[in-house]
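re: ur question from the group chat, yeah i did fold both. here u go
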Amino acid sequence: MQEDRLPVSIITGFLGSGKTTLLNRLLRHPAMGESAVVVNEFGEVGIDNALLVASSDQVVLMESGCLCCTIRGDLIETLGELMAKRKSGAVPSFRRVVIETTGLADPAPILQALMSDLTMLNHFRLGQVVTVVDGYHGARTLDAQPEAVKQAAMADRLVLSKGDLVPRGVLERLIGRLRRLNPIAPVIEALQGDVDPGRLFGSAGFDIAEKTAEVRSWLAAEHGTHPHSHDRNRHDADIQAHAFAFDEPLAWEALAGWLDRLALEHGEDLLRVKGLVNVRGQQEPVVIQGVHHLFHPPSTLARWPDDDHRSRLVFIVRHLGRTELAVGAPQSTPLPVGRTS
């Protein structure tokens, strides 16, 4: 196999773990200048791509739903289109591809596709799998979500985020659990995604021979009967994505009151909240990020990513319907974006 194939590295991790924050910091580093980025989001409204500092030529948004199973065909098609655009000069030349998966993605079928599709093998080789683990919610997530266990077990590098939010003893117990789950991958602590890319992306790629027997069995298994739905707004019978848009600028007090109520009453079932908000009196878009009961302090982007200045919020939830989420919304008629369920 030719040695000039481009490495495809994967950044994965459960909802809200800090994948986009990590990728955002990495893309500021000179060593990542010749990178193409593929962002996969769950739900019809893309938010994560707007939070990345890279130019629009570098970032490709896949809105087809969770990157797994039959959806992986969209990934192969996307990579093929990237190569064609690279060859024609339609996008800047790149020397690596980084895929940020949705937090609900099972990495096994993605890796299997990248290792077995002949078209891909002509142009790409599998690079490193980097899994971001939330230091604050990580233990609970590993208990509740099998996807999170697979993401950690398959990693070549484990990046531990939000370690400053928990006592050191709690963090050490989580690190110990991760090392038992994946004895090969180094655990790298990173605050706000601050880690040198050289620690994550080396010359050696994903090596199945180094993985545990359980990981090898996952990769060898037939994934055609993957149990969850491929509606881009529904992951399984319990987990759904609901998107809201608001035409007019929002009063911050009303928005904050709505989110506070949701966190207080439904925090256990708020797997992820993210959005760009047009706040009354504020020119720049305000970024909203939350996981369960924990909402990060709001931040702003330098500019809106496009001409659409509506407020857009996405809720990835368990056992919550759209009507329950809309109670107390700052406008009486929140507008659905795309399909609902």
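okk and heres the other one u asked abt
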Amino acid sequence: MHLPFNFQLVDASWEARSLATLIANYEAALPPGGWPNWVLGNHDRPRVAAKRGQAQARVAAMLLLTLRGTPTLYYGDELGLSDVAIPPAQVQDPRGLREPGSPWAAIRSAHRCRGTGARMPASPRQAVAAAQCRLADAQRRADGGGASFNPDALSSVAGCQARASGAVDRDFGLLDAEGDVLAYERRHGAERLIVALNLGGRSHRLELPDWASDCRPLLSTVADAALAGDGTLLLRADEGVILTAD
């Protein structure tokens, strides 16, 4: 109860300027010392990949993991799972049975049937993603590590205090951006990160701040980030990038 969920991202318009305003207003509304939190999806809503598309699901995950505060992600979204139709005869949820036409009943998330031990139907992509998850977990255990969420992203930024900290609002700041680009800075002492997210289906250039001339790419949702020599970052369609200056 000490961390009431902030659900604004769940139903927010997936548009860069709208999200920038939402984030700025939420940060401004927090009292001194207040700790933010963000939620991307839950069992009451369609999955992120179903709403935003597979390409934007990774961008959305990067947004959630790099905003200031505590992120909460609905299990399965880290695999890019989408919705799957559940035959009426297999519906187990009590509310879904009582209200067949309600939004709750329309939620198409694969889950375990209560009391039967059988699984609800899964899409081919879900079956592949689940197999990949099991293989990845097995490999991490073989290497001496445990299962972890979004290992590529977390291992790349786990050591960055600029991402993990942010006790005060000055540790976070939105950057000027245009079009489909949402960009912001995370700070901790001398360490700085730039997060640049392309929420659209065409490429954009982001003009970087003067201090970012020595930034290097830390992570991209697509491939290696493309830093231009003119102080700009080339964002490909549906790409999220984290730059670091340390």
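fwiw on the second one: Confidence is low (pLDDT under 50) at residues 108-118, 143-149. Residues 207 and 232 are 4 Å apart (CA to CA). idk if thats what u expected
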